């Protein structure tokens, strides 16, 4: 029998493909449906200049969404913060994904300003990974049930 070696290096594209195929096969064996994702986004512009965005991923099997949306990005240029633009970008995205039948939204964040902002938008903490960042601060998972928006 050949000796198995564990080597510290980057995987090749072929190895990544082999790994992903293996994960797909494992999912099938365990009865877990394959999922793809659609990205939904809104961009805020001042003239032709980008000043903010909201964006994330809706996962689905075939044409049916899983019911959860992962907010990957909510950003507003510093000059335009504290004017309600972040809330407007978030609300636009929430309304769009709710219209697709998605019932919940979740995200990762950190920092007291971000936590206060999301609480005002109806989000609540579902998990916290203490000392996630090298400065000792936490990474916080927040979620919201979209049935709370009209």
Protein described:
27% of the residues lie in helices and 37% in strands. With 150 residues, the chain is an alpha+beta fold. The chain has one domain (34-148): Aminopeptidase (3-Layer(aba) Sandwich), CATH 3.40.630. The chain has a six-stranded mixed sheet with strand order 1-2-3-4-6-5, covered by helices on one side. Helix 2 (85-99) links the parallel strand 3 and strand 4 (104-109). The protein is globular and about 65 Å long. The mean pLDDT is 93.
Q: Nutshell version of this structure?
A:
The chain is α+β, with helices and mostly antiparallel strands. It has helices at residues 13-29, 85-99, 112-120, and strands spanning 36-46, 49-61, 64-76, 104-109, 124-129, 139-145.
Order of helices and strands: HEEEHEHEE
The CATH architecture can be named as 3-Layer(aba) Sandwich
Low confidence ranges:
none
Name of the CATH first level: Alpha Beta
Rg, alpha carbons: 19 Å
Q: Oligomerization state of this entry? A: single chain
Can you give the helix content as a percent range? 25-40%
Largest pleated sheet: 6 strands, mixed
Which sequence of strands runs across the widest sheet? 1-2-3-4-6-5
Shape: globular
Give the tally of structural domains: 1
| Residue share in β-strands | 35-45%
Q: How many beta-strand runs? A: 6
Number of helices: 3
And the CATH topology? Aminopeptidase
Distance between the termini: 64 Å
Protein structure class: alpha+beta
- CATH H-level superfamily: Gcn5-related N-acetyltransferase (GNAT)
Average residue-wise pLDDT: 93
